[in-house]
Fold this protein.
Amino acid sequence: MTRHGHSTSTPGTVYLVGAGPGDPGLLTRHGADALARADVVVYDRLADDSMLSLAPADAELVYVGKQAAVHAVPQPRINQLLSTHAEQGKCVVRLKGGDPFVFGRGGEEATHLRERGIPCVVVPGVTSAVAAPAYAGIPVTDRRHASSFAVITGHEDPTRQTSRIDWHGVAHGADTLVFLMGLTNLASICSRLIDEGRPATAAAAVIERGTTPGQRVVTGTLADLAGRVAEAGLHPPALIVVGDVVQLRRQLAWHDSQPLAGRRILVPRVRRRPSEIVRLLKAAGAEVAEVPVLRSETLPVTGDLRGRLDAADWLVFTSPGALEALLEQLGTLGSDIRALGAGRIAAAGPATAAQLRRCGLRVDYAPETATGFADGFPASSHATALLIGEEVGERRMLRDLAVAGLCCSELPVSRLTVDDRAPLPPIEQFDAIALASSNTARRLIEAYPDGPTDAQVVVSIGPMTSRTAGRLGLRVDAEAAGASPAAVVRTLVERLETRLPGD
Ligand code: SAH
Protein backbone atom coordinates (compact mmCIF):
# COMPACT_ATOMS: atom_id res chain seq x y z
CA MET A 1 0.00 0.00 0.00
CA THR A 2 1.16 3.56 -0.61
CA ARG A 3 0.50 6.90 0.98
CA HIS A 4 -2.86 7.01 -0.72
CA GLY A 5 -3.85 3.54 0.15
CA HIS A 6 -3.75 2.49 -3.52
CA SER A 7 -3.62 -1.22 -3.80
CA THR A 8 -0.90 -2.27 -6.17
CA SER A 9 -3.39 -3.52 -8.74
CA THR A 10 -4.73 -0.02 -9.51
CA PRO A 11 -2.14 2.23 -11.13
CA GLY A 12 -1.35 5.54 -9.48
CA THR A 13 -1.74 8.83 -11.32
CA VAL A 14 1.16 10.57 -13.02
CA TYR A 15 1.04 14.36 -12.79
CA LEU A 16 3.00 16.09 -15.54
CA VAL A 17 3.76 19.32 -13.74
CA GLY A 18 5.29 22.50 -15.12
CA ALA A 19 7.72 23.88 -12.54
CA GLY A 20 7.83 27.31 -14.17
CA PRO A 21 10.94 29.03 -15.49
CA GLY A 22 12.96 29.46 -12.30
CA ASP A 23 11.38 31.79 -9.78
CA PRO A 24 9.78 29.28 -7.37
CA GLY A 25 6.86 31.67 -6.88
CA LEU A 26 5.80 30.87 -10.44
CA LEU A 27 4.89 27.27 -9.64
CA THR A 28 1.11 26.93 -9.86
CA ARG A 29 -1.10 25.96 -6.93
CA HIS A 30 -2.09 22.77 -8.74
CA GLY A 31 1.60 21.97 -9.10
CA ALA A 32 2.28 22.57 -5.41
CA ASP A 33 -0.70 20.38 -4.44
CA ALA A 34 0.50 17.54 -6.67
CA LEU A 35 4.00 17.75 -5.15
CA ALA A 36 2.56 17.64 -1.64
CA ARG A 37 0.87 14.33 -2.48
CA ALA A 38 3.75 12.70 -4.34
CA ASP A 39 5.23 9.30 -3.52
CA VAL A 40 7.84 9.80 -6.25
CA VAL A 41 9.10 12.96 -7.95
CA VAL A 42 10.93 12.50 -11.26
CA TYR A 43 12.58 15.81 -12.10
CA ASP A 44 14.82 17.53 -14.63
CA ARG A 45 17.43 20.13 -13.97
CA LEU A 46 15.54 23.07 -12.50
CA ALA A 47 16.74 26.64 -12.13
CA ASP A 48 15.65 26.45 -8.50
CA ASP A 49 15.09 23.10 -6.86
CA SER A 50 13.80 24.49 -3.55
CA MET A 51 10.31 23.43 -4.66
CA LEU A 52 11.33 19.79 -4.20
CA SER A 53 10.96 20.41 -0.48
CA LEU A 54 7.19 20.69 -1.10
CA ALA A 55 7.20 16.92 -1.53
CA PRO A 56 6.73 14.84 1.64
CA ALA A 57 9.95 14.05 3.52
CA ASP A 58 9.76 10.39 2.58
CA ALA A 59 8.98 10.90 -1.11
CA GLU A 60 11.52 9.39 -3.48
CA LEU A 61 13.29 12.04 -5.57
CA VAL A 62 14.65 10.83 -8.91
CA TYR A 63 16.85 13.15 -10.96
CA VAL A 64 16.81 12.47 -14.70
CA GLY A 65 18.24 15.72 -16.07
CA LYS A 66 21.62 16.35 -17.60
CA GLN A 67 24.72 16.27 -15.44
CA ALA A 68 27.62 18.46 -16.57
CA ALA A 69 29.11 16.74 -19.64
CA VAL A 70 27.04 13.60 -19.07
CA HIS A 71 24.03 12.82 -21.21
CA ALA A 72 20.56 13.04 -19.82
CA VAL A 73 18.72 9.84 -18.98
CA PRO A 74 17.35 8.60 -22.35
CA GLN A 75 13.66 9.35 -22.93
CA PRO A 76 12.50 5.69 -23.14
CA ARG A 77 14.09 5.10 -19.72
CA ILE A 78 12.24 8.10 -18.25
CA ASN A 79 8.97 6.87 -19.74
CA GLN A 80 9.58 3.47 -18.23
CA LEU A 81 10.41 4.95 -14.81
CA LEU A 82 7.11 6.82 -14.81
CA SER A 83 5.02 3.82 -15.78
CA THR A 84 6.81 1.41 -13.43
CA HIS A 85 6.22 3.61 -10.39
CA ALA A 86 2.62 4.30 -11.36
CA GLU A 87 1.97 0.59 -11.91
CA GLN A 88 3.04 0.04 -8.30
CA GLY A 89 0.11 2.24 -7.31
CA LYS A 90 2.23 5.29 -6.49
CA CYS A 91 1.40 8.93 -7.01
CA VAL A 92 4.09 10.17 -9.41
CA VAL A 93 4.97 13.79 -10.15
CA ARG A 94 6.97 14.39 -13.30
CA LEU A 95 8.36 17.87 -12.73
CA LYS A 96 9.63 19.78 -15.76
CA GLY A 97 10.99 23.28 -16.28
CA GLY A 98 8.56 25.86 -17.68
CA ASP A 99 5.51 24.27 -19.26
CA PRO A 100 5.57 20.48 -19.78
CA PHE A 101 4.22 20.71 -23.33
CA VAL A 102 6.54 23.48 -24.57
CA PHE A 103 9.65 21.66 -25.84
CA GLY A 104 9.51 19.48 -22.78
CA ARG A 105 8.73 16.09 -24.37
CA GLY A 106 5.71 16.00 -22.08
CA GLY A 107 3.56 14.87 -25.00
CA GLU A 108 5.69 11.77 -25.49
CA GLU A 109 5.49 10.89 -21.82
CA ALA A 110 1.73 11.37 -21.76
CA THR A 111 1.37 9.14 -24.84
CA HIS A 112 3.46 6.41 -23.23
CA LEU A 113 1.28 6.50 -20.10
CA ARG A 114 -1.98 6.54 -22.07
CA GLU A 115 -0.90 3.49 -24.04
CA ARG A 116 -0.56 1.63 -20.75
CA GLY A 117 -3.85 2.81 -19.33
CA ILE A 118 -2.14 4.89 -16.63
CA PRO A 119 -4.07 7.98 -15.57
CA CYS A 120 -2.18 11.13 -16.42
CA VAL A 121 -2.96 14.70 -15.37
CA VAL A 122 -1.25 17.68 -17.00
CA VAL A 123 -0.53 20.74 -14.86
CA PRO A 124 0.58 23.52 -17.20
CA GLY A 125 3.45 25.72 -16.11
CA VAL A 126 4.56 29.28 -16.77
CA THR A 127 6.74 28.94 -19.84
CA SER A 128 10.13 30.62 -19.99
CA ALA A 129 9.24 31.76 -23.53
CA VAL A 130 6.92 34.39 -22.08
CA ALA A 131 8.11 34.75 -18.48
CA ALA A 132 11.83 35.34 -19.09
CA PRO A 133 11.08 38.22 -21.50
CA ALA A 134 8.53 39.56 -18.97
CA TYR A 135 11.13 39.59 -16.17
CA ALA A 136 13.51 41.33 -18.58
CA GLY A 137 10.95 44.08 -19.23
CA ILE A 138 10.05 42.75 -22.71
CA PRO A 139 6.33 42.13 -23.38
CA VAL A 140 6.06 39.51 -26.15
CA THR A 141 3.15 41.42 -27.65
CA ASP A 142 2.37 45.11 -27.47
CA ARG A 143 -0.21 47.05 -29.44
CA ARG A 144 2.43 49.53 -30.53
CA HIS A 145 5.04 47.02 -31.68
CA ALA A 146 3.90 43.44 -32.08
CA SER A 147 0.59 41.67 -32.62
CA SER A 148 1.94 38.13 -32.76
CA PHE A 149 4.72 36.01 -31.34
CA ALA A 150 6.17 32.63 -32.19
CA VAL A 151 8.18 30.19 -30.10
CA ILE A 152 10.73 28.23 -32.08
CA THR A 153 13.37 25.66 -31.27
CA GLY A 154 16.87 27.01 -31.77
CA HIS A 155 18.34 23.57 -31.38
CA GLU A 156 18.67 23.01 -35.10
CA ASP A 157 21.61 24.60 -36.80
CA PRO A 158 20.07 26.79 -39.54
CA THR A 159 23.10 26.27 -41.79
CA ARG A 160 22.19 22.60 -42.12
CA GLN A 161 20.82 21.76 -45.54
CA THR A 162 18.08 19.45 -44.28
CA SER A 163 16.41 21.71 -41.76
CA ARG A 164 12.92 20.79 -40.61
CA ILE A 165 12.29 24.46 -39.90
CA ASP A 166 10.83 26.74 -42.55
CA TRP A 167 13.21 29.64 -41.92
CA HIS A 168 11.54 31.92 -44.43
CA GLY A 169 8.20 31.31 -42.74
CA VAL A 170 9.74 31.88 -39.30
CA ALA A 171 11.36 35.17 -40.31
CA HIS A 172 8.07 36.54 -41.65
CA GLY A 173 5.46 34.64 -39.68
CA ALA A 174 5.36 36.62 -36.44
CA ASP A 175 6.39 40.02 -35.13
CA THR A 176 8.20 38.70 -32.05
CA LEU A 177 10.32 35.55 -32.30
CA VAL A 178 11.41 33.61 -29.22
CA PHE A 179 14.02 30.88 -29.68
CA LEU A 180 14.53 28.31 -26.96
CA MET A 181 17.64 26.10 -26.80
CA GLY A 182 19.35 28.38 -29.31
CA LEU A 183 22.36 29.84 -27.53
CA THR A 184 24.95 27.65 -29.30
CA ASN A 185 23.42 28.49 -32.67
CA LEU A 186 22.92 32.18 -31.90
CA ALA A 187 25.21 33.53 -34.63
CA SER A 188 23.75 31.34 -37.36
CA ILE A 189 20.16 31.99 -36.26
CA CYS A 190 20.72 35.77 -36.47
CA SER A 191 22.38 35.61 -39.87
CA ARG A 192 19.74 33.24 -41.23
CA LEU A 193 17.00 35.67 -40.17
CA ILE A 194 18.87 38.50 -41.91
CA ASP A 195 19.27 36.35 -45.06
CA GLU A 196 15.53 35.66 -45.00
CA GLY A 197 14.74 39.38 -44.92
CA ARG A 198 14.59 40.57 -41.30
CA PRO A 199 16.53 43.85 -41.07
CA ALA A 200 20.06 43.55 -39.66
CA THR A 201 19.14 46.46 -37.38
CA ALA A 202 16.20 44.56 -35.79
CA ALA A 203 16.33 44.65 -32.01
CA ALA A 204 17.18 41.36 -30.29
CA ALA A 205 18.14 40.10 -26.84
CA VAL A 206 19.44 37.04 -25.05
CA ILE A 207 18.12 36.34 -21.55
CA GLU A 208 20.12 34.03 -19.31
CA ARG A 209 18.49 32.33 -16.27
CA GLY A 210 15.36 34.45 -16.73
CA THR A 211 13.15 35.06 -13.65
CA THR A 212 15.91 33.93 -11.27
CA PRO A 213 17.95 36.31 -9.12
CA GLY A 214 20.89 35.56 -11.43
CA GLN A 215 19.07 36.77 -14.56
CA ARG A 216 21.36 38.47 -17.10
CA VAL A 217 20.23 40.19 -20.29
CA VAL A 218 22.25 41.29 -23.30
CA THR A 219 20.56 43.38 -25.99
CA GLY A 220 21.66 44.37 -29.47
CA THR A 221 20.66 43.97 -33.09
CA LEU A 222 20.55 40.88 -35.29
CA ALA A 223 23.91 42.05 -36.65
CA ASP A 224 25.80 42.45 -33.40
CA LEU A 225 23.99 40.36 -30.76
CA ALA A 226 26.14 37.23 -31.12
CA GLY A 227 29.35 39.23 -30.56
CA ARG A 228 27.94 40.97 -27.50
CA VAL A 229 26.72 37.72 -26.00
CA ALA A 230 30.10 36.05 -26.52
CA GLU A 231 31.77 38.99 -24.82
CA ALA A 232 29.43 38.83 -21.83
CA GLY A 233 29.93 35.05 -21.62
CA LEU A 234 26.29 34.02 -21.25
CA HIS A 235 25.49 30.37 -20.58
CA PRO A 236 22.38 28.17 -20.85
CA PRO A 237 19.61 28.17 -19.91
CA ALA A 238 19.08 31.17 -22.12
CA LEU A 239 16.64 32.22 -24.80
CA ILE A 240 16.67 34.64 -27.72
CA VAL A 241 14.02 37.30 -28.37
CA VAL A 242 13.85 39.12 -31.69
CA GLY A 243 11.56 42.05 -32.49
CA ASP A 244 10.74 45.68 -31.79
CA VAL A 245 9.36 44.82 -28.34
CA VAL A 246 12.95 44.34 -27.16
CA GLN A 247 13.32 48.13 -27.23
CA LEU A 248 10.72 48.45 -24.46
CA ARG A 249 13.24 46.97 -22.05
CA ARG A 250 14.96 50.35 -21.82
CA GLN A 251 11.85 51.65 -20.05
CA LEU A 252 10.41 48.50 -18.52
CA ALA A 253 13.41 46.59 -17.09
CA TRP A 254 12.67 45.82 -13.46
CA HIS A 255 13.90 42.45 -12.23
CA ASP A 256 17.60 42.73 -13.04
CA SER A 257 17.85 46.38 -12.06
CA GLN A 258 16.91 45.92 -8.39
CA PRO A 259 19.59 47.03 -5.89
CA LEU A 260 20.75 43.50 -4.98
CA ALA A 261 20.11 41.87 -8.38
CA GLY A 262 22.73 39.23 -9.15
CA ARG A 263 23.92 39.06 -5.52
CA ARG A 264 24.03 35.80 -3.63
CA ILE A 265 23.56 36.10 0.07
CA LEU A 266 23.86 33.43 2.72
CA VAL A 267 21.53 33.67 5.69
CA PRO A 268 22.18 31.11 8.43
CA ARG A 269 18.91 30.09 10.01
CA VAL A 270 17.82 28.78 13.38
CA ARG A 271 14.09 28.73 12.83
CA ARG A 272 11.88 27.19 10.24
CA ARG A 273 9.72 30.19 9.76
CA PRO A 274 10.96 32.56 7.05
CA SER A 275 12.91 35.49 8.38
CA GLU A 276 12.11 39.13 7.70
CA ILE A 277 15.66 39.65 6.45
CA VAL A 278 15.17 36.96 3.83
CA ARG A 279 11.94 38.54 2.66
CA LEU A 280 13.56 41.97 2.35
CA LEU A 281 16.66 40.62 0.61
CA LYS A 282 14.54 38.83 -1.97
CA ALA A 283 12.44 41.93 -2.49
CA ALA A 284 15.69 43.78 -3.28
CA GLY A 285 16.47 41.17 -5.97
CA ALA A 286 19.05 39.07 -4.12
CA GLU A 287 19.38 35.32 -4.41
CA VAL A 288 19.15 34.06 -0.87
CA ALA A 289 20.20 30.69 0.52
CA GLU A 290 19.03 29.88 4.01
CA VAL A 291 21.26 27.18 5.45
CA PRO A 292 21.05 24.65 6.76
CA VAL A 293 17.63 23.49 5.58
CA LEU A 294 15.58 22.60 8.66
CA ARG A 295 12.74 20.20 9.14
CA SER A 296 10.37 20.08 12.06
CA GLU A 297 9.76 16.77 13.84
CA THR A 298 6.96 16.22 16.33
CA LEU A 299 8.27 15.21 19.76
CA PRO A 300 6.83 12.26 21.67
CA VAL A 301 4.43 13.15 24.47
CA THR A 302 5.99 13.49 27.89
CA GLY A 303 4.16 14.06 31.19
CA ASP A 304 0.48 14.82 31.65
CA LEU A 305 -0.24 16.62 28.38
CA ARG A 306 -4.02 16.87 28.81
CA GLY A 307 -3.70 17.95 32.42
CA ARG A 308 -1.31 20.77 31.51
CA LEU A 309 -3.56 22.02 28.69
CA ASP A 310 -6.53 21.93 31.00
CA ALA A 311 -4.83 23.87 33.79
CA ALA A 312 -3.55 26.80 31.71
CA ASP A 313 -5.41 30.11 31.52
CA TRP A 314 -3.62 30.92 28.28
CA LEU A 315 -2.33 28.71 25.50
CA VAL A 316 0.37 30.65 23.67
CA PHE A 317 1.30 29.16 20.29
CA THR A 318 4.82 30.30 19.37
CA SER A 319 5.16 28.96 15.81
CA PRO A 320 2.86 28.29 12.83
CA GLY A 321 3.52 24.53 13.04
CA ALA A 322 2.87 24.31 16.80
CA LEU A 323 -0.83 23.46 16.63
CA GLU A 324 -0.34 20.71 14.06
CA ALA A 325 2.41 19.11 16.19
CA LEU A 326 0.25 19.38 19.32
CA LEU A 327 -2.69 17.75 17.53
CA GLU A 328 -0.39 14.97 16.40
CA GLN A 329 0.70 14.43 20.02
CA LEU A 330 -2.93 14.43 21.17
CA GLY A 331 -3.73 11.90 18.44
CA THR A 332 -1.23 9.45 19.93
CA LEU A 333 -3.22 9.69 23.19
CA GLY A 334 -6.46 8.95 21.38
CA SER A 335 -7.51 12.56 21.87
CA ASP A 336 -8.06 15.57 19.62
CA ILE A 337 -8.60 19.33 19.46
CA ARG A 338 -11.27 19.16 22.21
CA ALA A 339 -8.42 18.62 24.71
CA LEU A 340 -7.48 22.31 24.31
CA GLY A 341 -10.07 23.02 26.98
CA ALA A 342 -11.26 26.42 28.05
CA GLY A 343 -7.94 28.31 28.01
CA ARG A 344 -7.72 31.50 25.99
CA ILE A 345 -5.53 31.43 22.91
CA ALA A 346 -2.62 33.66 21.88
CA ALA A 347 -0.38 33.53 18.79
CA ALA A 348 3.20 34.83 18.72
CA GLY A 349 2.74 36.52 15.36
CA PRO A 350 0.42 36.94 12.37
CA ALA A 351 1.52 33.75 10.56
CA THR A 352 0.85 31.65 13.64
CA ALA A 353 -2.50 33.40 14.19
CA ALA A 354 -3.49 32.72 10.58
CA GLN A 355 -2.66 29.03 10.98
CA LEU A 356 -4.76 28.77 14.16
CA ARG A 357 -7.70 30.49 12.47
CA ARG A 358 -7.44 28.13 9.51
CA CYS A 359 -8.02 25.30 11.97
CA GLY A 360 -11.15 27.03 13.22
CA LEU A 361 -9.79 28.45 16.49
CA ARG A 362 -10.62 31.95 17.69
CA VAL A 363 -7.43 33.81 18.58
CA ASP A 364 -7.76 36.09 21.59
CA TYR A 365 -4.41 37.84 21.28
CA ALA A 366 -2.05 38.11 18.29
CA PRO A 367 0.28 41.09 18.01
CA GLU A 368 1.75 42.08 14.63
CA THR A 369 5.28 41.05 15.67
CA ALA A 370 6.74 38.86 18.39
CA THR A 371 8.79 41.73 19.84
CA GLY A 372 6.66 43.55 22.38
CA PHE A 373 4.49 40.45 22.72
CA ALA A 374 4.48 40.65 26.52
CA ASP A 375 3.81 44.42 26.68
CA GLY A 376 0.37 44.19 25.17
CA PHE A 377 -0.55 40.84 26.71
CA PRO A 378 -4.10 41.18 28.04
CA ALA A 379 -3.80 38.79 31.01
CA SER A 380 -3.86 39.75 34.67
CA SER A 381 -0.82 38.78 36.73
CA HIS A 382 -0.64 35.31 38.22
CA ALA A 383 -2.52 33.95 35.22
CA THR A 384 -0.89 30.79 33.93
CA ALA A 385 0.43 30.60 30.38
CA LEU A 386 1.62 27.54 28.49
CA LEU A 387 4.03 28.33 25.65
CA ILE A 388 3.50 25.72 22.95
CA GLY A 389 6.10 25.42 20.22
CA GLU A 390 9.60 24.33 19.34
CA GLU A 391 11.91 22.64 21.80
CA VAL A 392 14.36 25.49 21.94
CA GLY A 393 11.69 28.09 21.82
CA GLU A 394 10.99 31.67 22.67
CA ARG A 395 13.28 32.26 25.64
CA ARG A 396 12.83 36.01 25.46
CA MET A 397 9.05 35.76 25.38
CA LEU A 398 9.12 33.43 28.36
CA ARG A 399 11.22 35.90 30.31
CA ASP A 400 9.14 38.93 29.32
CA LEU A 401 5.87 37.22 30.25
CA ALA A 402 7.36 36.23 33.61
CA VAL A 403 8.43 39.84 34.17
CA ALA A 404 4.85 40.89 33.36
CA GLY A 405 3.75 38.68 36.27
CA LEU A 406 2.47 35.60 34.47
CA CYS A 407 3.26 32.07 35.58
CA CYS A 408 4.72 30.56 32.44
CA SER A 409 5.85 27.14 31.44
CA GLU A 410 6.91 25.63 28.14
CA LEU A 411 5.31 22.76 26.29
CA PRO A 412 7.73 21.71 23.54
CA VAL A 413 5.86 19.88 20.77
CA SER A 414 8.43 19.83 17.97
CA ARG A 415 12.14 19.87 17.33
CA LEU A 416 14.00 21.40 14.41
CA THR A 417 16.51 19.10 12.83
CA VAL A 418 18.92 19.63 9.99
CA ASP A 419 17.64 18.11 6.74
CA ASP A 420 20.59 16.05 5.54
CA ARG A 421 19.04 15.54 2.12
CA ALA A 422 19.73 19.14 1.19
CA PRO A 423 23.49 19.53 0.65
CA LEU A 424 25.17 22.74 1.84
CA PRO A 425 26.15 25.07 -0.99
CA PRO A 426 29.88 25.93 -1.08
CA ILE A 427 30.48 29.16 0.83
CA GLU A 428 32.64 30.57 -2.01
CA GLN A 429 29.56 31.13 -4.18
CA PHE A 430 28.20 33.87 -1.93
CA ASP A 431 28.82 37.61 -2.10
CA ALA A 432 27.73 38.27 1.45
CA ILE A 433 26.55 36.73 4.70
CA ALA A 434 23.85 38.30 6.87
CA LEU A 435 23.91 37.50 10.59
CA ALA A 436 20.52 38.22 12.14
CA SER A 437 21.33 37.09 15.69
CA SER A 438 23.97 35.48 17.90
CA ASN A 439 22.39 32.10 17.27
CA THR A 440 22.68 32.47 13.51
CA ALA A 441 26.40 33.25 13.96
CA ARG A 442 26.70 29.95 15.85
CA ARG A 443 24.75 28.13 13.11
CA LEU A 444 27.11 29.53 10.48
CA ILE A 445 30.16 28.11 12.24
CA GLU A 446 28.42 24.77 12.76
CA ALA A 447 27.61 24.57 9.07
CA TYR A 448 30.91 26.00 7.82
CA PRO A 449 33.60 25.37 10.46
CA ASP A 450 36.22 27.19 8.35
CA GLY A 451 34.05 30.31 8.29
CA PRO A 452 33.78 32.71 5.35
CA THR A 453 36.62 33.48 2.94
CA ASP A 454 37.88 37.00 2.27
CA ALA A 455 35.44 37.25 -0.64
CA GLN A 456 32.25 37.50 1.44
CA VAL A 457 31.06 40.67 3.11
CA VAL A 458 29.84 39.71 6.57
CA VAL A 459 27.17 42.00 8.01
CA SER A 460 25.83 41.70 11.54
CA ILE A 461 22.55 43.08 12.81
CA GLY A 462 23.98 44.72 15.92
CA PRO A 463 26.60 44.85 18.69
CA MET A 464 25.50 41.70 20.50
CA THR A 465 25.66 39.59 17.37
CA SER A 466 29.02 41.13 16.44
CA ARG A 467 30.40 40.25 19.88
CA THR A 468 29.25 36.64 19.60
CA ALA A 469 30.72 36.46 16.11
CA GLY A 470 34.01 37.82 17.46
CA ARG A 471 34.11 35.20 20.19
CA LEU A 472 33.56 32.50 17.56
CA GLY A 473 36.46 33.88 15.53
CA LEU A 474 34.16 35.21 12.80
CA ARG A 475 35.16 38.39 11.02
CA VAL A 476 32.41 41.04 10.82
CA ASP A 477 32.86 43.63 8.07
CA ALA A 478 29.95 45.89 8.89
CA GLU A 479 27.33 46.31 11.56
CA ALA A 480 23.86 47.53 10.63
CA ALA A 481 23.04 50.94 12.05
CA GLY A 482 19.67 50.50 13.74
CA ALA A 483 19.68 46.78 14.57
CA SER A 484 16.68 45.96 12.35
CA PRO A 485 16.25 43.64 9.37
CA ALA A 486 15.77 46.67 7.10
CA ALA A 487 19.04 48.16 8.39
CA VAL A 488 20.88 44.91 7.59
CA VAL A 489 19.57 45.04 4.02
CA ARG A 490 20.51 48.74 3.66
CA THR A 491 24.02 47.98 4.90
CA LEU A 492 24.36 45.13 2.42
CA VAL A 493 23.19 47.33 -0.45
CA GLU A 494 25.77 50.00 0.50
CA ARG A 495 28.56 47.47 0.90
CA LEU A 496 27.86 45.62 -2.34
CA GLU A 497 27.07 48.68 -4.47
CA THR A 498 30.69 49.45 -5.18
CA ARG A 499 31.53 45.93 -6.29
CA LEU A 500 30.68 44.35 -9.61
CA PRO A 501 28.70 41.12 -9.38
CA GLY A 502 31.08 38.18 -9.49
CA ASP A 503 34.06 40.22 -8.22
N1 SAH B 1 9.40 23.58 -21.14
C1 SAH B 1 10.31 24.70 -21.02
C2 SAH B 1 11.31 24.74 -22.15
C3 SAH B 1 12.20 23.53 -22.24
S1 SAH B 1 13.44 23.68 -23.47
C4 SAH B 1 9.50 26.00 -20.90
O1 SAH B 1 8.30 26.01 -21.14
O2 SAH B 1 10.11 27.00 -20.53
C5 SAH B 1 14.77 24.38 -22.53
C6 SAH B 1 15.05 25.77 -23.00
O3 SAH B 1 14.15 26.68 -22.39
C7 SAH B 1 16.41 26.29 -22.64
O4 SAH B 1 17.38 25.87 -23.57
C8 SAH B 1 16.19 27.78 -22.72
O5 SAH B 1 16.20 28.22 -24.03
C9 SAH B 1 14.77 27.92 -22.22
N2 SAH B 1 14.73 28.26 -20.79
C10 SAH B 1 14.26 27.52 -19.79
N3 SAH B 1 14.32 28.19 -18.62
C11 SAH B 1 14.86 29.40 -18.91
C12 SAH B 1 15.16 30.55 -18.15
N4 SAH B 1 14.95 30.59 -16.83
N5 SAH B 1 15.68 31.62 -18.78
C13 SAH B 1 15.90 31.60 -20.10
N6 SAH B 1 15.63 30.53 -20.88
C14 SAH B 1 15.12 29.45 -20.29
Remarks:
- The domain at 296-418 is CATH 3.40.50.10090 (Rossmann fold).
- Residues 7 and 120 are 18 Å apart (CA to CA).
- Residues 75-87 form the longest helix (13 residues).
